[in-house]
């Protein structure tokens, strides 16, 4: 070795750990884990059953899993079968509506938490979900960098990833049931806006005026009908069970169950649209 080229002492971090090649990669991986765990903590604090876990970046997340280890399409079929057996009196439209809502609720609420509390968008398009006895809860995400940016950018990218996720679920449920885009898109629009209107209640730093302004952008980003804005109530108006923040434009058909009734934001209760089952 030439004079003057001798290696110096091994550098160490403040906690005594050695620094060297690969250290940056290790720190980046640690930051990714920390970023996701912070998102998961925020989601679970909002809704305890919205509980996330991680899989390796290159590992595929099955869209739907159950303890039986059945294929995702079989799990989707079991989900529909559960509601058919639990409430045979409610009819086919209810079974399908309930099943679809179960498949999509986690992605919608996770998107709200990610954008408004975490200011980032994870890989929603690669989200996996767990199933047990009629309920879809618990999810997985790959360890990948999240998208950062201004809120309008986050809404747009979240919408793109949600559409990809929903398309996968549409294919799964559609393998065993007659499912049409014209049936699910109004349901998605209702569920999205019903979640968005609650964001100021969940996160005090977000105002009702903000989510009112964002509502059309969410619908556009998700490829959903803007006509559903007819159910939105202005942020300054009082809200209670009689006058909810958002009135659904498509009935969830819960009232058809023997133990059911009209929901507080049902279009029939509010004198808006009829409970269309088609």
From TrEMBL:
Residues annotated as domain Ferric siderophore reductase C-terminal: 248-268
Top-level taxon: Bacteria
Species classification: Bacteria, Pseudomonadati, Pseudomonadota, Gammaproteobacteria, Aeromonadales
InterPro entries referenced in this protein's UniProt entry, alphabetically: FCR-like, FhuF_C
UniProt-recorded name of the protein: Siderophore ferric iron reductase
Disordered: annotated span: 1-27
Species of provenance: Aeromonas bivalvium
Pfam families in the record: FhuF_C
């Amino acid at each position: 070795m030439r004079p003057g080229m001798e290696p110096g002492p091994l550098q160490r971090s403040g906690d005594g750990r050695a620094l060297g090649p690969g250290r940056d990669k290790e720190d980046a991986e640690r930051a990714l884990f920390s970023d996701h765990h912070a998102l998961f903590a925020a989601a679970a604090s909002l809704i305890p059953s919205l509980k996330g876990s991680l899989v390796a970046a290159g590992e595929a997340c099955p869209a739907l899993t159950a303890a039986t280890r059945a294929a995702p399409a079989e799990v989707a079929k079991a989900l529909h079968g559960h509601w058919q057996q639990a409430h045979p009196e409610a009819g086919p439209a209810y079974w399908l509506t309930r099943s679809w809502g179960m498949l999509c609720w986690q992605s919608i609420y996770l998107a709200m938490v990610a954008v408004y509390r975490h200011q980032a968008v994870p890989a929603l398009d690669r989200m996996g979900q767990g199933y047990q006895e009629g309920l879809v809860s618990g999810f997985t995400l790959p360890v990948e960098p999240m998208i950062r940016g201004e809120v309008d950018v986050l809404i747009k990218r979240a919408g793109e990833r949600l559409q990809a996720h929903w398309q996968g679920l549409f294919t799964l449920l559609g393998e065993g049931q007659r499912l049409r885009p014209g049936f699910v898109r109004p349901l998605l629009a209702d569920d999205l806006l019903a979640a968005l209107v609650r964001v100021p209640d969940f996160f005090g730093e977000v105002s009702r005026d903000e989510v009112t302004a964002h509502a059309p952008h969410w619908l556009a980003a998700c490829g959903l009908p803007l006509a559903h804005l007819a159910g939105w109530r202005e942020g300054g108006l009082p809200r209670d069970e009689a006058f909810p923040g958002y009135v659904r434009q498509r009935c969830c058909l819960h009232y058809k169950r023997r133990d059911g009734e009209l929901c507080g934001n049902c279009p029939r209760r509010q004198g808006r649209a009829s409970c269309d089952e088609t």
